[in-house]
Amino acid sequence: MHEIGMCEGLVELIQQRAGGRRVKAARVRVGARHAVVGDAFDQAFTMAAAGTAAQDAEVELVVTPMTVRCETCGSLSESVDALAVCPVCGGDDVDLSGGEELVLESVTFGEEVPGVSRHPR
């Protein structure tokens, strides 16, 4: 479950930005090539955020598509399926591009966490 490593990194980044404040929500954009499973991502984030300022934060996962260029029929389309085939002809001779990003788009903060410095050293 590669979502665990991904979420551990995201929680670390969120913690750095939190500066002692609680995290109410975060929005993460991930490319389709990462083949992230939404439920697995949610569980991994919950585990990674346990005991941190991001615990109980709502996480919005936005999956961005990759571009599929079919070598058989020449069509160009988008897909969020990591095992994409051409949606026009069903061919599997495709070139895939994009869909590789992993971006923490936004974080919504709440009140300060008691006992946590806003300026960690």
TrEMBL record:
Pfam families: HypA. InterPro entries: Hydgase_Ni_incorp_HypA/HybF_CS (IPR020538), HypA/HybF (IPR000688). Keywords: Metal-binding, Nickel, Zinc. It comes from the Bacteria. Ni(2+) binds at residue 2. Zn(2+) binds at residues 70, 73, 86, 89. Belongs to the HypA/HybF family. PANTHER family: HYDROGENASE MATURATION FACTOR HYPA. Involved in the maturation of [NiFe] hydrogenases. Required for nickel insertion into the metal center of the hydrogenase. This is Hydrogenase maturation factor HypA.
